[in-house]
Amino acid sequence: MSLLLGRELFGDIANAGNVLSREEANDLLEDWVTNPRLQLHVKQVAALMYAWAKEKENLEDADAWRWELAGLLHDADWDQWPETHCKKIVEELERRKIDPEIIHAIASHGHQHFGVVPQTKMDKMLYAFDELSGLMHAYSLMRPHGYDGMDVKGVKKRLKEKTFAANVSRDDIYDACERAGILLDDLVAFIIPVQAKVF
Question: How does pLDDT run across 166-180, given as a tens digit for each residue?
């Protein structure tokens, strides 16, 4: 089954700046995502995107929401329509005339699956957070105190254990760090305190 999107351009530049409201985004997720684990994953990635936009990119709230929205909706169609992931969410956001940068970020969050290479900083950070966020959450579940006391060394040890969270692509994690120009240690250290707040 191919998930290749077969194109590199998404949305209409005339819609730049257009976003869903928080209520609209939450309504879409409520309709499309019924799996609690997936709900948590997208919320964690959204929180990471927002925090990075504010802390590292020094963006204002409106622009940080664009980043957060990309994180919140990147897997919105995976639960009910895995065979058309992420074609369905891309087409839904195009229909709603959403900012093409948000759509492109979603389309490029797994370039080896969808055939869309991450280009912008938003693209690269969504790609970087996606797989690593999932592995770190799995690690938190096996620790007696969750994220409390979690450190970079422990996360990297789990990364090397290929049987741990085996569905998480280590290649994607390393590739994403390289594309974003970020050291793995720094990315892990950033994720721990942010993700700890999202349950």
Answer: 999 999 999 999 999
**Is 80 exceeded by the pLDDT of residue 155?**
yes
pLDDT of residue 113: 86
Residue 85 makes CB contacts below 8 A (sequence gap 6+) with: 3, 75, 77, 78
What angle is formed at CA 88 by the lines to CA 32 and CA 86, rounded to 5 degrees? Answer: 95
Q: What size, in residues, is the chain?
A: 199
Transcribe 52-83 into DSSP letters: HHHHTS---HHHHHHHHHHHHHTTTTTTT-GG
Assigned architecture for domain 13-195: Orthogonal Bundle (1.10)
Residue 144, classified by CB atoms within 10 Å of its CB into exposed (0-12), middle (13-18) or buried (19+), is exposed
Spatial separation of the C-alpha atoms in residues 128 and 124, rounded to whole Å: 6
Q: How do residues 67-97 score in pLDDT, each as one tens digit?
A: 999 999 999 999 999 999 999 999 999 999 9
